[in-house]
Protein backbone atom coordinates (compact mmCIF):
# COMPACT_ATOMS: atom_id res chain seq x y z
CA UNK A 1 0.00 0.00 0.00
CA UNK A 2 1.22 3.54 -0.76
CA UNK A 3 1.70 6.16 1.90
CA UNK A 4 3.07 9.38 0.51
CA UNK A 5 6.33 8.57 -1.15
CA UNK A 6 6.83 5.35 0.76
CA UNK A 7 5.45 2.01 -0.30
CA UNK A 8 4.55 -0.05 2.75
CA UNK A 9 4.57 -3.81 3.00
CA UNK A 10 2.99 -5.54 5.98
CA UNK A 11 4.39 -9.00 6.35
CA UNK A 12 3.22 -11.37 9.05
CA UNK A 13 5.18 -14.51 9.79
CA UNK A 14 2.56 -17.06 10.71
CA UNK A 15 2.22 -20.75 11.30
CA UNK A 16 -0.41 -22.66 9.43
CA UNK A 17 -1.36 -25.97 7.93
CA UNK A 18 -0.98 -26.89 4.29
CA UNK A 19 -2.15 -29.93 2.33
CA UNK A 20 0.45 -30.66 -0.34
CA UNK A 21 -1.37 -33.93 -0.96
CA UNK A 22 -5.18 -34.27 -0.93
CA UNK A 23 -6.55 -33.82 2.57
CA UNK A 24 -3.19 -34.49 4.21
CA UNK A 25 -2.33 -31.42 6.23
CA UNK A 26 1.08 -30.65 7.64
CA UNK A 27 2.31 -27.78 9.81
CA UNK A 28 3.95 -25.04 7.74
CA UNK A 29 5.06 -21.43 8.09
CA UNK A 30 4.29 -18.65 5.68
CA UNK A 31 4.15 -14.92 5.24
CA UNK A 32 0.55 -13.59 5.19
CA UNK A 33 -0.52 -17.12 4.23
CA UNK A 34 0.15 -20.67 5.29
CA UNK A 35 3.11 -21.54 3.05
CA UNK A 36 5.60 -19.15 1.37
CA UNK A 37 4.77 -15.46 0.95
CA UNK A 38 3.25 -13.13 -1.65
CA UNK A 39 5.22 -11.87 -4.64
CA UNK A 40 6.44 -8.41 -3.70
CA UNK A 41 6.41 -6.07 -6.66
CA UNK A 42 8.95 -3.27 -6.35
CA UNK A 43 10.14 -0.46 -8.55
CA UNK A 44 13.78 0.52 -8.70
CA UNK A 45 14.32 3.80 -6.88
CA UNK A 46 11.21 3.50 -4.72
CA UNK A 47 11.34 3.98 -0.97
CA UNK A 48 9.88 1.00 0.82
CA UNK A 49 9.03 0.20 4.39
CA UNK A 50 8.80 -3.44 5.40
CA UNK A 51 6.93 -4.13 8.64
CA UNK A 52 7.57 -7.69 9.66
CA UNK A 53 5.47 -9.10 12.51
CA UNK A 54 6.50 -12.40 14.01
CA UNK A 55 3.53 -14.40 15.29
CA UNK A 56 5.57 -17.61 15.51
CA UNK A 57 6.68 -19.15 18.76
CA UNK A 58 10.35 -18.78 17.92
CA UNK A 59 12.75 -16.05 16.83
CA UNK A 60 12.81 -15.37 13.10
CA UNK A 61 14.16 -12.85 10.59
CA UNK A 62 13.45 -11.81 7.01
CA UNK A 63 16.38 -11.14 4.72
CA UNK A 64 16.10 -9.48 1.28
CA UNK A 65 18.38 -11.76 -0.71
CA UNK A 66 20.37 -9.93 -3.38
CA UNK A 67 19.37 -6.47 -2.15
CA UNK A 68 21.74 -3.57 -1.55
CA UNK A 69 20.45 -2.18 1.77
CA UNK A 70 21.95 -0.73 4.97
CA UNK A 71 23.24 -3.54 7.16
CA UNK A 72 20.79 -2.83 9.96
CA UNK A 73 17.90 -3.51 7.56
CA UNK A 74 19.43 -6.60 5.97
CA UNK A 75 17.44 -9.09 8.04
CA UNK A 76 20.38 -11.17 9.22
CA UNK A 77 20.60 -13.00 12.57
CA UNK A 78 21.44 -9.58 14.06
CA UNK A 79 17.94 -8.33 13.26
CA UNK A 80 16.15 -11.14 15.02
CA UNK A 81 12.44 -10.64 15.60
CA UNK A 82 11.25 -12.14 18.87
CA UNK A 83 7.80 -13.76 19.05
CA UNK A 84 5.11 -11.08 19.11
CA UNK A 85 7.43 -8.33 17.91
CA UNK A 86 7.37 -6.20 14.77
CA UNK A 87 10.59 -5.23 13.01
CA UNK A 88 10.65 -2.40 10.52
CA UNK A 89 13.14 -2.04 7.70
CA UNK A 90 13.14 1.03 5.50
CA UNK A 91 15.29 1.49 2.43
CA UNK A 92 15.41 2.61 -1.16
CA UNK A 93 15.23 -0.11 -3.78
CA UNK A 94 18.55 0.06 -5.64
CA UNK A 95 18.38 -2.93 -7.90
CA UNK A 96 18.35 -3.68 -11.58
CA UNK A 97 15.12 -5.31 -12.76
CA UNK A 98 15.27 -8.97 -11.76
CA UNK A 99 13.91 -11.68 -9.48
CA UNK A 100 15.07 -11.51 -5.87
CA UNK A 101 13.67 -13.24 -2.80
CA UNK A 102 13.11 -12.85 0.88
CA UNK A 103 13.63 -15.61 3.39
CA UNK A 104 14.41 -16.43 7.00
CA UNK A 105 17.98 -15.91 8.14
CA UNK A 106 17.40 -16.91 11.74
CA UNK A 107 20.48 -17.88 13.72
CA UNK A 108 21.04 -21.63 13.21
CA UNK A 109 17.38 -21.96 12.17
CA UNK A 110 17.34 -20.76 8.56
CA UNK A 111 17.22 -24.37 7.32
CA UNK A 112 14.08 -25.51 9.13
CA UNK A 113 12.30 -22.16 8.78
CA UNK A 114 12.79 -21.85 5.02
CA UNK A 115 12.00 -25.55 4.65
CA UNK A 116 8.62 -25.04 6.30
CA UNK A 117 7.85 -22.04 4.11
CA UNK A 118 9.48 -18.80 5.26
CA UNK A 119 10.40 -17.47 1.81
CA UNK A 120 8.88 -15.52 -1.05
CA UNK A 121 9.74 -13.82 -4.35
CA UNK A 122 10.47 -10.16 -5.04
CA UNK A 123 10.23 -8.81 -8.56
CA UNK A 124 12.01 -5.53 -9.14
CA UNK A 125 10.92 -3.54 -12.15
CA UNK A 126 12.65 -0.69 -13.89
CA UNK A 127 12.54 2.92 -12.68
CA UNK A 128 9.02 4.34 -12.93
CA UNK A 129 7.78 0.78 -13.33
CA UNK A 130 8.70 0.95 -16.98
CA UNK A 131 8.41 -2.51 -18.34
CA UNK A 132 11.19 -4.12 -20.27
CA UNK A 133 10.92 -5.47 -23.77
CA UNK A 134 10.64 -9.02 -22.46
CA UNK A 135 7.29 -10.62 -21.61
CA UNK A 136 6.09 -8.84 -18.45
CA UNK A 137 2.43 -9.62 -17.77
CA UNK A 138 2.61 -11.21 -14.35
CA UNK A 139 1.03 -14.65 -14.27
CA UNK A 140 0.29 -14.52 -17.99
CA UNK A 141 3.61 -14.50 -19.81
CA UNK A 142 5.88 -13.66 -16.87
CA UNK A 143 5.93 -16.34 -14.21
CA UNK A 144 8.21 -16.80 -11.21
CA UNK A 145 8.96 -20.40 -10.25
CA UNK A 146 10.23 -21.12 -6.74
CA UNK A 147 11.66 -24.59 -6.87
CA UNK A 148 12.08 -26.52 -3.61
CA UNK A 149 12.48 -30.22 -2.91
CA UNK A 150 10.79 -31.60 0.18
CA UNK A 151 10.52 -34.89 2.04
CA UNK A 152 7.09 -36.10 3.10
CA UNK A 153 5.95 -38.94 5.30
CA UNK A 154 3.22 -41.25 4.02
CA UNK A 155 0.77 -39.15 6.06
CA UNK A 156 1.70 -36.07 4.03
CA UNK A 157 3.70 -34.47 6.83
CA UNK A 158 6.86 -32.56 6.00
CA UNK A 159 9.95 -34.28 7.33
CA UNK A 160 12.91 -32.23 8.50
CA UNK A 161 15.05 -34.81 10.20
CA UNK A 162 18.37 -33.04 10.76
CA UNK A 163 20.34 -36.24 10.94
CA UNK A 164 24.10 -36.02 10.55
CA UNK A 165 23.62 -37.09 6.94
CA UNK A 166 21.01 -34.37 6.35
CA UNK A 167 23.35 -31.77 7.76
CA UNK A 168 26.29 -32.95 5.72
CA UNK A 169 24.44 -33.31 2.40
CA UNK A 170 21.94 -30.59 3.21
CA UNK A 171 18.26 -31.48 3.66
CA UNK A 172 16.93 -33.15 0.51
CA UNK A 173 13.55 -34.53 -0.41
CA UNK A 174 12.14 -36.64 -3.21
CA UNK A 175 9.18 -34.40 -4.02
CA UNK A 176 9.49 -31.10 -5.82
CA UNK A 177 7.31 -28.15 -4.89
CA UNK A 178 6.98 -25.36 -7.44
CA UNK A 179 5.43 -22.27 -5.86
CA UNK A 180 4.24 -24.69 -3.19
CA UNK A 181 2.52 -27.04 -5.64
CA UNK A 182 3.44 -30.52 -6.89
CA UNK A 183 3.64 -31.07 -10.64
CA UNK A 184 1.90 -27.90 -11.86
CA UNK A 185 0.66 -27.30 -15.37
CA UNK A 186 0.51 -23.86 -16.97
CA UNK A 187 -1.82 -22.80 -19.74
CA UNK A 188 0.29 -20.62 -22.01
CA UNK A 189 -1.53 -17.89 -23.96
CA UNK A 190 1.41 -16.25 -25.67
CA UNK A 191 4.08 -17.29 -28.13
CA UNK A 192 6.86 -16.44 -25.70
CA UNK A 193 6.87 -17.22 -22.01
CA UNK A 194 9.27 -15.69 -19.52
CA UNK A 195 10.09 -17.94 -16.58
CA UNK A 196 11.92 -16.53 -13.58
CA UNK A 197 13.57 -19.51 -11.95
CA UNK A 198 14.64 -19.47 -8.33
CA UNK A 199 16.32 -22.43 -6.73
CA UNK A 200 14.80 -22.00 -3.28
CA UNK A 201 15.80 -25.49 -2.14
CA UNK A 202 17.74 -26.01 1.04
CA UNK A 203 20.49 -28.00 -0.65
CA UNK A 204 19.83 -29.53 -4.04
CA UNK A 205 21.55 -28.27 -7.16
CA UNK A 206 19.61 -28.74 -10.41
CA UNK A 207 20.10 -28.63 -14.13
CA UNK A 208 16.89 -27.24 -15.64
CA UNK A 209 16.03 -28.41 -19.13
CA UNK A 210 13.08 -29.36 -21.30
CA UNK A 211 12.26 -33.01 -21.79
CA UNK A 212 12.50 -32.46 -25.56
CA UNK A 213 15.82 -30.66 -25.12
CA UNK A 214 14.26 -27.56 -26.68
CA UNK A 215 16.55 -24.59 -26.24
CA UNK A 216 15.63 -21.26 -24.63
CA UNK A 217 17.12 -17.82 -24.19
CA UNK A 218 18.63 -16.94 -20.83
CA UNK A 219 18.06 -13.21 -20.37
CA UNK A 220 18.97 -12.57 -16.74
CA UNK A 221 21.07 -13.85 -13.85
CA UNK A 222 20.71 -13.21 -10.10
CA UNK A 223 20.75 -9.41 -10.06
CA UNK A 224 19.67 -8.24 -13.51
CA UNK A 225 19.64 -8.71 -17.28
CA UNK A 226 22.54 -10.21 -19.16
CA UNK A 227 23.96 -7.85 -21.78
CA UNK A 228 22.58 -10.09 -24.49
CA UNK A 229 20.40 -13.21 -24.39
CA UNK A 230 22.33 -16.48 -24.34
CA UNK A 231 20.88 -19.50 -26.12
CA UNK A 232 21.04 -22.56 -23.89
CA UNK A 233 19.39 -25.91 -23.49
CA UNK A 234 20.27 -26.41 -19.82
CA UNK A 235 20.80 -24.05 -16.91
CA UNK A 236 22.39 -25.09 -13.62
CA UNK A 237 21.16 -23.35 -10.46
CA UNK A 238 22.34 -23.93 -6.91
CA UNK A 239 20.38 -22.81 -3.85
CA UNK A 240 19.87 -19.04 -3.89
CA UNK A 241 20.66 -18.59 -7.59
CA UNK A 242 18.14 -17.27 -10.14
CA UNK A 243 17.85 -17.28 -13.91
CA UNK A 244 15.36 -15.68 -16.23
CA UNK A 245 14.62 -17.57 -19.40
CA UNK A 246 12.38 -16.91 -22.38
CA UNK A 247 10.76 -19.99 -23.86
CA UNK A 248 9.27 -20.25 -27.34
CA UNK A 249 5.90 -22.01 -27.24
CA UNK A 250 4.77 -20.86 -30.69
CA UNK A 251 4.92 -24.44 -32.04
CA UNK A 252 1.90 -25.19 -29.87
CA UNK A 253 3.25 -28.46 -28.46
CA UNK A 254 3.26 -29.07 -24.67
CA UNK A 255 6.63 -28.62 -23.03
CA UNK A 256 7.73 -30.34 -19.84
CA UNK A 257 10.37 -28.49 -17.84
CA UNK A 258 12.53 -30.85 -15.78
CA UNK A 259 15.09 -30.41 -13.01
CA UNK A 260 17.86 -32.97 -12.82
CA UNK A 261 19.41 -33.11 -9.40
CA UNK A 262 23.20 -33.18 -9.18
CA UNK A 263 25.05 -35.22 -6.63
CA UNK A 264 26.30 -33.19 -3.71
CA UNK A 265 29.84 -34.45 -3.77
CA UNK A 266 31.38 -33.06 -6.88
CA UNK A 267 28.68 -31.07 -8.50
CA UNK A 268 28.52 -33.82 -11.08
CA UNK A 269 25.36 -35.17 -12.66
CA UNK A 270 23.46 -37.78 -10.79
CA UNK A 271 20.24 -37.46 -12.72
CA UNK A 272 19.53 -40.30 -15.10
CA UNK A 273 16.50 -40.70 -17.30
CA UNK A 274 16.75 -44.45 -17.54
CA UNK A 275 13.86 -46.49 -16.28
CA UNK A 276 11.83 -45.80 -13.21
CA UNK A 277 8.31 -44.44 -13.05
CA UNK A 278 7.36 -41.07 -11.65
CA UNK A 279 7.07 -41.45 -7.90
CA UNK A 280 4.29 -40.36 -5.62
CA UNK A 281 5.30 -36.75 -6.03
CA UNK A 282 6.99 -35.83 -9.24
CA UNK A 283 10.42 -37.38 -9.08
CA UNK A 284 11.87 -40.27 -10.97
CA UNK A 285 14.77 -42.16 -9.49
CA UNK A 286 17.24 -44.25 -11.30
CA UNK A 287 20.57 -45.68 -10.23
CA UNK A 288 22.02 -42.31 -11.16
CA UNK A 289 19.72 -40.08 -9.13
CA UNK A 290 16.64 -37.92 -9.40
CA UNK A 291 14.82 -36.09 -12.13
CA UNK A 292 11.91 -33.87 -11.10
CA UNK A 293 9.00 -32.46 -13.06
CA UNK A 294 8.95 -28.68 -12.68
CA UNK A 295 6.26 -27.33 -15.00
CA UNK A 296 4.14 -28.60 -17.85
CA UNK A 297 3.57 -25.77 -20.31
CA UNK A 298 0.42 -26.30 -22.36
CA UNK A 299 0.06 -23.79 -25.20
CA UNK A 300 -3.40 -22.56 -26.11
CA UNK A 301 -4.77 -23.19 -29.58
CA UNK A 302 -4.65 -19.48 -30.35
CA UNK A 303 -1.44 -17.92 -29.12
CA UNK A 304 -1.09 -14.17 -28.80
CA UNK A 305 1.95 -12.86 -30.62
CA UNK A 306 4.88 -11.75 -28.45
CA UNK A 307 7.50 -9.12 -29.10
CA UNK A 308 10.73 -10.68 -30.31
CA UNK A 309 13.46 -10.84 -27.68
CA UNK A 310 15.89 -7.97 -28.29
CA UNK A 311 19.45 -8.83 -29.25
CA UNK A 312 20.76 -6.42 -26.64
CA UNK A 313 19.22 -6.20 -23.18
CA UNK A 314 21.43 -3.87 -21.19
CA UNK A 315 24.94 -2.50 -20.84
CA UNK A 316 26.96 -3.63 -17.87
CA UNK A 317 30.13 -1.98 -16.60
CA UNK A 318 33.25 -3.64 -17.94
CA UNK A 319 34.74 -6.21 -15.58
CA UNK A 320 37.96 -4.43 -14.64
CA UNK A 321 40.07 -6.16 -11.95
CA UNK A 322 42.62 -3.34 -12.01
CA UNK A 323 40.14 -1.28 -9.96
CA UNK A 324 40.54 -3.64 -7.01
CA UNK A 325 42.49 -2.26 -4.06
CA UNK A 326 42.60 -5.49 -2.12
CA UNK A 327 42.33 -9.25 -2.52
CA UNK A 328 40.83 -11.42 0.19
CA UNK A 329 40.84 -15.20 0.31
CA UNK A 330 38.03 -17.42 1.53
CA UNK A 331 38.55 -21.15 1.91
CA UNK A 332 35.45 -23.31 2.35
CA UNK A 333 36.04 -26.47 4.32
CA UNK A 334 34.15 -29.38 5.81
CA UNK A 335 36.36 -30.94 8.44
CA UNK A 336 36.53 -34.68 8.91
CA UNK A 337 35.51 -34.52 12.54
CA UNK A 338 32.09 -33.15 11.49
CA UNK A 339 31.80 -31.34 14.82
CA UNK A 340 29.27 -28.55 14.85
CA UNK A 341 31.65 -25.88 16.04
CA UNK A 342 35.18 -24.81 15.38
CA UNK A 343 37.64 -27.23 13.87
CA UNK A 344 36.27 -30.20 12.13
CA UNK A 345 33.00 -28.47 11.32
CA UNK A 346 31.73 -26.33 8.47
CA UNK A 347 34.17 -23.47 8.20
CA UNK A 348 35.33 -20.53 6.12
CA UNK A 349 39.04 -19.80 6.61
CA UNK A 350 39.07 -22.36 9.41
CA UNK A 351 36.43 -20.52 11.42
CA UNK A 352 32.86 -21.37 12.18
CA UNK A 353 30.27 -18.54 12.34
CA UNK A 354 30.44 -16.45 15.49
CA UNK A 355 27.89 -13.66 15.84
CA UNK A 356 30.28 -11.70 18.05
CA UNK A 357 33.22 -11.83 15.64
CA UNK A 358 33.70 -9.54 12.63
CA UNK A 359 35.77 -11.49 10.13
CA UNK A 360 36.47 -8.84 7.52
CA UNK A 361 36.50 -5.06 7.49
CA UNK A 362 35.97 -3.45 4.11
CA UNK A 363 36.44 0.21 3.18
CA UNK A 364 33.46 2.08 1.77
CA UNK A 365 33.77 3.09 -1.88
CA UNK A 366 36.34 0.48 -2.75
CA UNK A 367 36.45 -2.44 -5.12
CA UNK A 368 37.96 -5.76 -4.07
CA UNK A 369 38.72 -9.18 -5.41
CA UNK A 370 37.45 -12.07 -3.34
CA UNK A 371 39.15 -15.32 -4.15
CA UNK A 372 37.00 -18.19 -2.97
CA UNK A 373 38.33 -21.71 -2.85
CA UNK A 374 36.33 -24.83 -2.19
CA UNK A 375 38.71 -27.14 -0.34
CA UNK A 376 36.01 -29.69 0.46
CA UNK A 377 34.64 -32.72 -1.35
CA UNK A 378 31.18 -31.19 -1.82
CA UNK A 379 29.91 -28.39 -4.02
CA UNK A 380 28.93 -25.17 -2.16
CA UNK A 381 27.01 -22.10 -3.38
CA UNK A 382 28.83 -19.04 -1.99
CA UNK A 383 26.58 -16.03 -1.35
CA UNK A 384 27.58 -12.47 -0.41
CA UNK A 385 25.13 -9.96 1.06
CA UNK A 386 24.78 -6.30 0.02
CA UNK A 387 26.44 -6.54 -3.40
CA UNK A 388 25.88 -7.80 -6.89
CA UNK A 389 29.33 -9.01 -7.92
CA UNK A 390 30.90 -10.12 -11.18
CA UNK A 391 32.76 -13.37 -11.73
CA UNK A 392 36.34 -12.73 -12.89
CA UNK A 393 37.32 -16.32 -13.46
CA UNK A 394 36.82 -19.95 -12.54
CA UNK A 395 40.05 -21.86 -12.02
CA UNK A 396 41.82 -19.10 -13.91
CA UNK A 397 39.51 -19.21 -16.91
CA UNK A 398 36.85 -16.62 -17.82
CA UNK A 399 33.34 -17.69 -16.81
CA UNK A 400 30.82 -18.86 -19.40
CA UNK A 401 28.76 -16.11 -21.04
CA UNK A 402 25.69 -16.67 -18.88
CA UNK A 403 27.77 -16.05 -15.74
CA UNK A 404 29.11 -12.68 -16.92
CA UNK A 405 26.17 -10.73 -15.51
CA UNK A 406 25.23 -9.58 -12.02
CA UNK A 407 25.52 -12.31 -9.41
CA UNK A 408 25.11 -12.64 -5.66
CA UNK A 409 25.55 -16.40 -5.39
CA UNK A 410 28.14 -18.53 -7.15
CA UNK A 411 28.43 -22.31 -7.19
CA UNK A 412 31.83 -23.83 -6.48
CA UNK A 413 32.39 -27.45 -7.34
CA UNK A 414 34.77 -29.44 -5.19
CA UNK A 415 38.32 -28.07 -5.42
CA UNK A 416 37.19 -25.17 -7.56
CA UNK A 417 38.61 -21.66 -7.18
CA UNK A 418 36.57 -18.63 -8.23
CA UNK A 419 37.56 -14.97 -8.23
CA UNK A 420 34.87 -12.32 -7.73
CA UNK A 421 34.95 -8.58 -8.27
CA UNK A 422 32.89 -6.64 -5.71
CA UNK A 423 32.27 -2.92 -5.18
CA UNK A 424 31.13 -1.66 -1.79
CA UNK A 425 29.25 1.60 -1.78
CA UNK A 426 26.56 3.82 -0.25
CA UNK A 427 26.18 2.26 3.17
CA UNK A 428 28.77 2.17 5.95
CA UNK A 429 28.17 0.85 9.44
CA UNK A 430 31.18 -0.35 11.40
CA UNK A 431 29.02 -2.07 14.02
CA UNK A 432 26.52 -4.02 11.97
CA UNK A 433 27.83 -6.80 9.75
CA UNK A 434 26.68 -8.32 6.51
CA UNK A 435 27.10 -12.06 5.94
CA UNK A 436 28.82 -14.24 3.38
CA UNK A 437 28.03 -17.92 3.50
CA UNK A 438 27.27 -21.20 1.86
CA UNK A 439 23.64 -21.15 0.72
CA UNK A 440 23.10 -24.82 1.53
CA UNK A 441 21.02 -23.86 4.52
CA UNK A 442 22.16 -26.72 6.75
CA UNK A 443 25.77 -25.71 6.09
CA UNK A 444 24.93 -22.09 6.86
CA UNK A 445 23.22 -23.14 10.10
CA UNK A 446 26.19 -25.35 10.98
CA UNK A 447 28.59 -22.43 10.70
CA UNK A 448 29.81 -22.06 7.10
CA UNK A 449 29.23 -18.32 7.35
CA UNK A 450 31.27 -15.23 8.12
CA UNK A 451 30.65 -11.55 8.75
CA UNK A 452 31.98 -8.36 7.17
CA UNK A 453 31.42 -4.71 7.91
CA UNK A 454 31.77 -1.76 5.57
CA UNK A 455 33.30 1.31 7.19
CU1 LIG B 1 19.72 -15.96 0.74
CU2 LIG B 1 22.38 -14.82 3.57
O1 LIG B 1 20.98 -15.39 2.22
CU1 LIG C 1 21.44 -12.77 0.98
CU1 LIG D 1 27.95 -25.78 1.71
From TrEMBL:
The yes or no answer to whether the keyword Metal-binding is present is yes
Identify the residues that the record assigns to the Plastocyanin-like domain, covering every copy.
21-128, 345-455
Origin, by domain of life?
Answer: Bacteria
What SUPFAM superfamilies does the database record attribute to this sequence? Cupredoxins
Cleavable signal peptide = none
Record keyword Transport present:
no
Q: Which InterPro entries match?
A: Cu-oxidase-like_N, Cu-oxidase_C, Cu-oxidase_fam, Cu_oxidase_Cu_BS, Cupredoxin
Q: Which keywords describe this protein according to UniProt?
A: Metal-binding, Oxidoreductase
Q: Which residues cross the membrane?
A: none
Q: What Pfam families does the database record attribute to this sequence? A: Cu-oxidase_2, Cu-oxidase_3
Q: GO molecular-function annotation terms? A: copper ion binding; oxidoreductase activity
Instruction: Quote the PANTHER family the UniProt record gives.
Output: BILIRUBIN OXIDASE, CUPREDOXIN SUPERFAMILY PROTEIN
The entry's protein name is: Oxidase
> Which organism is this entry from?
Hyphomonas chukchiensis
Lineage runs: Bacteria, Pseudomonadati, Pseudomonadota, Alphaproteobacteria, Hyphomonadales
Amino acid sequence: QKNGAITEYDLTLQSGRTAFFDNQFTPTIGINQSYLGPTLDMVNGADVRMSVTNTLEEDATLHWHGFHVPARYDGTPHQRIAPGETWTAQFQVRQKPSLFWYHSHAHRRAGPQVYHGLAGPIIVRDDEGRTDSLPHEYGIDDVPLIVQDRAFGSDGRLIYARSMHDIMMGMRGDTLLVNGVIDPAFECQTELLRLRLLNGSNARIYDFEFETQQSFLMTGSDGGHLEAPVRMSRIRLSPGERAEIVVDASHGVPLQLLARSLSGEMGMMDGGMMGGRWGRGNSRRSSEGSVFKVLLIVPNEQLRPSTATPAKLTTLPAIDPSKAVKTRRFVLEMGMGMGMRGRGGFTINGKSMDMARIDERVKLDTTEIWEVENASMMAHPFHVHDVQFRILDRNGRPPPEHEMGLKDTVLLSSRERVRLLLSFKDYADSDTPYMYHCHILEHEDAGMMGQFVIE
